[in-house]
Specification:
Radius of gyration: 19 Å
Structural class: alpha+beta
Oligomer: single chain
Strand content: 15-25%
Number of strands: 6
Shape: globular
């Protein structure tokens, strides 16, 4: 199903104009492939049911607060971004691309939820969270100032040191943090912006452990890799990817257990 979606989207984008087609196909293919890989790794640790079912969603707000919802919103946002980040100055083209890409992101999210019916159950709440993530990408196309505030993600290295390795890191929520990272330099007035280094972002994050363990709320500084020097094509691709990653940096962590400061927070 994902392959069919990918082919159909590439064809539609190729017919809709140079702006969208030159920037969307390869990005969308990469995002779909990574989504399929992450889903496959997730299912490896689950037992498949013989019957399809709906998820138990009697407490929807608790589901939204669950750390897995963070990943739903983040994944849908980045899928929807595949056709939005274009070099075009034409806002109308950006808006059209955003809606198309958001539609594809939600189609992929729906396909995953249908498959989830044999595992955790089909979740309408998760699909709603997917819509929130994709909707933010659309909002960025309408309001360029939102381009300066990027949903990002970080995983502590210790998450990869378990016997399950990368597969375990996908569900090791205690070592994952979801952020909103702001390019403060671009948001400040011109006079004040001179005092703030362009590559330094201010990031606000949440690490939700689930269950009775209180969540951590984090405020910290990090580097926006996209602002680092160097224009080699391979390096540019790396920088574009790392733009969505909150690189380790100083942070203040607040939780029900008190407030702590870290010189290097993952």
């Amino acid at each position: 199903m994902c392959a069919a979606l990918l082919f159909g989207t590439q064809l539609a984008l190729a017919q809709s104009g140079t702006c969208e087609s030159t920037t969307s196909a390869s990005r969308l293919g990469t995002q779909v492939a990574l989504s399929a890989l992450a889903t496959g790794l997730e299912y490896q640790s689950m037992a498949r049911s013989s019957t399809w079912r709906m998820a138990d969603e009697r407490a929807p707000m608790a589901i939204v607060a669950d750390p897995s919802s963070h990943l739903h919103a983040l994944g849908s946002y980045h899928l929807a971004r595949t056709a939005v980040h274009t070099p075009c100055a034409d806002r109308a083209s950006r808006v059209r691309a955003a809606w198309k890409s958001a539609g594809v992101a939600l189609a992929i999210g729906t396909a995953k939820e249908v498959a989830d019916g044999y595992y955790n159950g089909f979740s309408a709440v998760d699909l709603g969270v997917d819509a929130m993530g994709a909707g933010y990408a659309v909002a960025q196309a309408y309001l360029p100032v939102l381009e300066k505030i990027t949903p990002s993600f970080s995983v502590a290295p210790r998450a990869f040191l378990t016997t399950r390795g990368p597969r375990g890191a996908l569900v090791d929520y205690a070592n994952q943090t979801v952020w909103l990272s702001a390019n403060v330099h671009d948001l400040l007035p011109l006079a004040a912006a001179k005092a703030w280094p362009s590559p330094v972002r201010l990031s606000v994050g949440r690490r939700a452990f689930g269950g009775a363990t209180p969540s951590e709320y984090v405020v910290g500084l990090d580097l926006d890799a996209e602002r680092l020097p160097g224009n080699h094509p391979a390096w540019v691709h790396v920088k574009n990817f790392l733009h969505s990653v909150r690189l380790p940096g100083p942070a203040i962590v607040m939780s029900g257990n008190g407030t702590k400061s870290f010189g290097l927070y993952w």
